[in-house]
Amino acid sequence: MEPSSLQYALTEEERKAFNETGYLILENVLSPEQVAALTKEVDHIFDTKVKAGHDTTKALFHPNFIPDHKLFLDLLDYEKVLPKVWGIMGWNIYLYHAHMIVTPPSGAQQNDKTFGWHQDSGRMNIEMESEPRPRMSLKVAYFLSDISEPGRGNFWIVPNSHLKNTMVRPEDGNGQLEGAIPVCVKPGTAVFFDRRLWHAASPNWSDITRKVLFYGYGYRWIRTKDDMTVQELYPKCDPIQRQLLGDGINCNGYYTPTDEEVPLKVWLKENAPEQVTR
């Protein structure tokens, strides 16, 4: 990681927006060339899945995609994004969850059935007793398709809902949560969101295919959510990338790490000590 990445550090304005709303939208994080190259690899994976029997009218949820191509690995510690992630969560982090979603046109008529609204992390939202529950993780979604208009399989969110443990759903199964909006963005946009933010996928009623990459960063003591097979990448990675892929020396080091186990902390102490607060 180069010190030049610090120019993309989280600003106080971004921190305030994320803490208050639960999300942050950054346009043009990926260049058109990056979008094109990533789209090519996503299309290849989707075509392979279709040949294996995937229904082309159904969304493809493909976890553990980081080992599929170096371009996906390159986003793990992307200089325009990782400084904002550690700015929110600190240095004891890793990629605990990653998935690619490709949503082709559904061919269905548009309707107002209630989406599958949820907070991330499953049982974490049942078994933690606090109000509100702790953040624990966040996701960065890289959008490769033009979803600047509603109806294109947009990701929906309820701004400011990350501090609410429950939300009232429509009783008749029609309509969305109060305050819900579609996220309408151009290709190359990155959307950061707190895992507690109430959100949902929506059907793709358009004639374009929606493609997005999700990178989930959590604390190193959280178990992986995917059956991640990233260990084979360790020899190709620098120390910070290895940390971000879950490498460690022993189990206790995830809870009480030495500097050897968290090279991101060491790098920050050398290059931006003001960002190492504890």
How large, in whole angstroms, is the Cα Rg? 19 Å
Number of helices: 7
- The pLDDT mean sits at 96
Q: What does the overall shape look like?
A: globular
Structure class? alpha+beta
Beta-strand segment tally: 9
Helix content: 10-25%
Distance, first to last CA: 21 Å
Largest sheet: 6 strands, antiparallel
- List the uncertain runs: none
Order of helices and strands: HEHEHHEHEEEEEEHH
**Strand portion:** 15-25%
Strand order, biggest sheet? 1-7-4-9-3-2
Helix and strand layout, with pairings?
Layout lengths: L11 H10 L1 E4 L5 H20 L8 E4 L6 H5 L7 H8 L3 E11 L20 H4 L9 E7 L12 E2 L23 E2 L7 E5 L4 E2 L9 E10 L19 H6 L18 H9 L7
For this entry, give a set of tags:
six-stranded antiparallel sheet, alpha+beta, 7 helices, single chain, three-stranded antiparallel sheet, 278 residues
